[in-house]
Write a structure and sequence with these properties.
Elements: H1 4-19, E1 26-35, H2 36-47, E2 51-52, E3 63-72, H3 73-81, E4 86-91, E5 94-99, H4 100-103, E6 104-113, E7 124-127, E8 132-135, E9 141-147, E10 151-156, E11 163-167, E12 173-174, E13 177-179, E14 205-208, H5 210-215, H6 225-230, E15 235-236, E16 246-247, E17 255-259, E18 262-263, E19 268-269, E20 274-275, E21 282-288, E22 302-308, E23 317-323, E24 326-336, E25 340-349, H7 351-362, E26 370-387, E27 390-412, E28 420-445, E29 448-472, E30 480-505, E31 508-521, E32 524-530, E33 538-544, E34 547-563, E35 566-579, E36 582-596, E37 602-612, E38 614-617, E39 629-632, E40 640-652, E41 658-675, E42 693-709, E43 714-728, E44 738-739, E45 746-756, E46 760-769, E47 773-774, E48 779-785, E49 797-803, E50 810-811, E51 815-827, E52 832-840, E53 850-856, E54 861-867, E55 873-881
Protein name: TonB-dependent receptor
Keywords: Cell outer membrane, Ion transport, Iron, Iron transport, Membrane, Receptor, Signal, TonB box, Transmembrane, Transmembrane beta strand, Transport
Family: Belongs to the TonB-dependent receptor family.
């Protein structure tokens, strides 16, 4: 028995060594000038690795010399077969060998909605027996290289019925998949369906589900994709109710917002309450908070890539939505069925009509006064198929905001005389965006796809005021006081770019391309003032110059699946900026790495370098209005640079029900700018603005955690952010580091939705955020000023003058709010009706919008006062689609 037992134990252990092989199995072999089949026999007998091949296809008589010790199997196989025209692949428990030329075939084409022809972004194309697959790109195109033998492809997409199709034959072919929407009364929205989170190399990326965005609680009844982005970890919304975004300690100008590949400079309507993106027009939204792919450049903090719907290729559709403050219309359909489609949406608010009388009373505009505050916007898109290999898209956006306050009043003198005076004040503000693009998709061959884009974008704002004061009933002496001012800015961009998508095999996705953009900046201020009898106005123009620059870039990136457990994304983005006879250049490496840990947890790491050639001059006196000026880097003010390192864990549970991720990041920024202390008025934007700003550094670091449930009737997410953001400037705060004005220590977002029956869906969103930093004066004194002798004011006026020392030494109060939403959907044969009810800030929390000093007559001193603008707000909207 003593001799038999060791033998039995050895036999029991032998299968573990012989048959339990994987790519990391350690191999030792030393053979000189031997045929390849000898090495195959050695691996099969020693390590239990069976080979399968045809001697008519694969030549294993080639002689090689190999001597390795304790090397992973995949490296040994690369050395044996890599230079001999032989490709290997594991299928089941075997290693299948084939000649490089005879082993592969490429299946390519588009994945689209069977009922509308809409291209599906991020649809999964998978070969089950090969355990390999790919996803469609931003235009619905896929390319999959596989065995020449007959195979089946499995295609899936969230909200659609999956399909499996055999692909017989041995030649390359173009195959379009048409997926049918799931059998549900709820409208199918285009949402991304990427592989499981741990299978992706990309980190710091979030796809925004548009179907869930429409059911989320909303401000004043308008669904808003930027509000959904604000609910993600690492993204702060700034002031209460605004739609601006601040990502990982960055400023608003550090976000690259693309609409069909065209940059949008201002994303807000109506003082930031709404965004410029109509939810009816959006097909897909990707948010990158870091780990930026090499194809993106020009901003430091984030990329928001928004794709518009293409339009139904087969049927006409009309949708009308009526809300309390805004209404919108959307139409789409075929121009030539199956070949050309169109899409158009329009939206306008009518808040000014509702608030006219209230505003006149509250602002004391007088009987002849006027108040207007509204916005409108429109989107269109035309999609035409020239051939199976060529498609063209023409898309556009235009929108404008208007605010007008006009006071017209006649009153008696305050000095007791019988004189009458007439005062007229007019304030107008308008801003808007335009974005247009024409794109051409071309398939060169089954593995190479290209997209050529020519685009134009514009942002402008124009503010002007006029003050007119005159004495009446005094024909002999004409007392008057007139003033006029204008503050304006305009940005124009004309660009062209070409992008290539090359997929040689499922292990590699290679992207490369280039771009050129011509920037034109037109900031300016004009002020006119006169106190005289001849009414002649004196022109004092601070700045009325045009500045321009040319930005050029090239990029290359390779998404490489080294093996099942290891994935690498390597890229480089090179750019140059030509301005004022100088050329700034930048080489920006991009690295993404994923390694699969036990229990299917993915360890991810990224390192990103970014450069930004444009700056935003922020007027701190009006932070909630779009009065900031865009300017280019100059000889005195260099471009901004950043480096960001991120490390995280991610996992999708079995059945794809839950996604969990946690990330830590550190970002360092160079050449960030800020106005010098006490520079807050409009005259700061003169042509010498370079002398009024200081250049400094910034740091941000923190941790983000997110858990999501994306399936079943009950869905939602919980996100938490712990973050720090710092700035340092030589001439501000005595050179000491201070918190950035959008530094929030803690943010918590909870979003839950429940489908009730077939027609109702309710949702709730609760958020909490630490207070923002605030700068307060350390002392103040009073200065006597003498007004115009013609003005009906007391002879002496005491104006308080504040003295500041340190930046952002105190915090505003914390922000928290609960919002509720209920959506009712009823589907008829020819129409679909949707009724939405909402309650914003249900427990009427008074969150700060801004702080200011107000004189308290009882205490006879000024008192710090908080303004809150959004109390509990009910909303209702009704839409019909047919």
């Amino acid at each position: 028995m003593k001799k038999v037992l060791p033998g039995l134990l050895l036999l029991a252990m032998l299968p573990l060594q012989v048959f339990a092989w994987n790519w990391r199995t350690r191999i030792s072999v030393s053979l000189e000038d031997q045929p390849l089949y000898v090495y195959c026999d050695h691996l099969e007998k020693t390590y239990g690795i069976p080979f399968s091949y045809s001697r008519d296809v694969v030549n294993l008589n080639r002689r090689v010399t190999l001597s390795v010790r304790d090397m992973p199997l995949w490296q040994v196989l690369d050395q044996l077969f890599g230079d001999n025209g032989i490709q290997y692949r594991r299928i089941g428990g075997q290693l299948v060998l084939a000649a490089q030329s005879s082993f592969q075939r490429t299946i390519s084409g588009y994945v689209e909605d069977a009922s509308t022809g809409e291209k599906l972004i991020g649809a999964t194309v998978y070969a089950p027996h090969l355990k390999a697959g790919t996803v469609t790109n931003a235009y619905g195109f896929y390319s999959f290289t596989s065995l020449r033998d007959t195979l089946s492809l499995f295609v899936s997409y969230t909200g659609y019925n999956a399909m499996q199709m055999p692909v017989p034959g041995r030649d390359n072919r173009q195959l379009n998949f048409k997926l049918s929407p799931s059998n549900t009364l709820k409208e199918v929205e285009v949402t991304e369906a990427l592989p499981r989170l741990q299978d992706q190399t990309q980190m710091s990326k979030v796809n925004i589900n548009m179907a869930q965005t429409k059911t989320m609680p909303r401000v004043l009844g308008e669904a808003d994709v930027l509000k959904s982005i604000q609910a993600m970890p690492g993204v702060s919304g700034g002031m209460e109710g605004t739609s601006g975004i601040h990502v990982r300690g960055g400023s608003p100008d550090q976000n690259l917002i693309l609409l069909d590949g065209t940059p949008v400079y201002n994303s807000s309507h109506l003082f930031g309450v709404f965004s410029v993106f109509n939810p009816d027009v959006i097909k897909n939204v990707d948010l990158y908070k870091g780990a930026f792919p090499a194809r993106y450049g020009g901003r430091l903090s984030s990329v928001v890539d928004i794709s518009m719907k293409d339009g139904d290729m087969y049927n006409d559709h009309y949708e009308i939505t009526l809300g309390l403050l805004a209404s919108r219309v959307a139409v789409e359909g075929p121009i030539v069925k199956g070949k050309t489609s169109y899409m158009f949406t329009g939206r306008r608010t009518y808040a000014d009509l509702i608030m006219q009388e209230i505003a006149n009373k509250e602002l004391k505009l007088g009987e002849e006064g006027e108040f207007w505050a509204y916005f409108y916007d429109a989107n269109f898109k035309i999609n035409h198929i020239f051939s199976p290999k060529d498609r063209i898209y023409l898309s556009g956006y235009g929108g404008k905001d208007n605010l007008t306050m006009h006071r017209n009043e006649t009153f008696d003198s305050m000095q007791g005389s019988a004189k009458k005076y007439h005062e007229e004040m007019r304030f107008r503000m308008g801003w808007g965006n335009q974005a247009y693009a024409i794109r051409w998709n071309h398939i060169f061959n089954p593995r190479l796809f290209s997209n050529v884009t020519v685009n134009y974008s514009q942002f402008y704002f124009n503010t002007d005021y006029r003050y007119k004061y005159m004495a009446l009933d005094t024909p002999q002496v004409r007392e008057n006081d007139n003033a006029f001012g204008r503050y304006y800015s305009k940005v124009d961009n004309l660009g062209a770019k070409i992008d290539f998508d090359y997929r040689p095999n499922p292990q590699h996705v290679i992207r490369f391309g280039g771009q050129g953009t011509w920037h034109v900046f037109r900031p300016g201020i004009a002020a006119f003032n006169n106190v005289s009898d001849d009414m002649q106005l004196t022109d004092t123009t601070y700045n009325d110059q045009t500045h321009g620059g040319v930005e050029l870039s090239l990029y290359f990136e390779n998404d490489w699946k080294i093996r099942d457990s290891m994935h690498l994304n390597l890229g480089v983005h090179g750019s140059a900026f030509l301005v004022e006879g100088r050329a700034y250049t930048s080489i920006q490496p991009r690295l993404g790495f994923r390694y699969m840990l036990p229990r299917r947890w993915a360890l991810k790491m990224s390192y990103t370098v970014m450069t930004q050639y444009i700056h935003l001059l922020t007027n701190h006196a009006a932070t909630f209005l779009p009065t900031d000026l865009w300017v280019a880097a100059t000889n005195k003010v260099p471009p901004m640079h950043s480096q960001q390192l991120a490390l995280g864990l991610a996992k999708t549970t079995n059945g794809n029900r839950y996604e969990m991720s946690v990330e830590g990041y550190y970002k360092r920024m160079e050449n960030v700018i800020q106005y010098q202390e006490q520079t807050a008025d409009f005259s700061a934007a003169t042509k010498s603005w370079e002398d009024l700003v200081v250049v400094g550094r910034g740091w941000s670091y923190g941790m983000e955690a997110l858990i999501q449930k994306k399936q079943d009737r009950f869905k939602g997410w919980i996100g938490y952010t712990l973050a720090w953001s710092r700035r340092s400037f030589p001439n501000i705060n005595q050179g000491r580091v201070f918190p950035y004005k959008y530094d929030r220590r803690h943010e918590l977002e909870v979003m839950l939705s429940q489908q009730i029956g077939k027609r109702w869906e309710v949702s709730a969103q609760w958020q909490f955020a630490s207070g923002l930093p605030l700068t307060l004066p350390v002392s103040s004194y009073e200065m006597i000023t003498e007004p115009s002798p013609n003005a009906p004011l007391p002879p002496d006026v005491l104006d308080p003058v504040d003295v500041y020392r340190d930046q952002y030494t105190v915090r505003m109060q914390d922000v928290h709010r609960l919002d509720l939403n209920a959506t009712y959907v009823k589907q008829r044969k020819v129409a679909r009706y949707t009724l939405t009810f909402g309650l914003y800030n249900i427990y009427n929390q008074k969150n700060p919008f801004l702080y200011y000093y107000k004189h308290n007559p009882e205490l006879q001193r000024r008192q710090l006062t908080m303004m809150s603008i959004l109390p509990v707000l009910p909303s209702v909207s009704w839409s019909v689609k047919f």
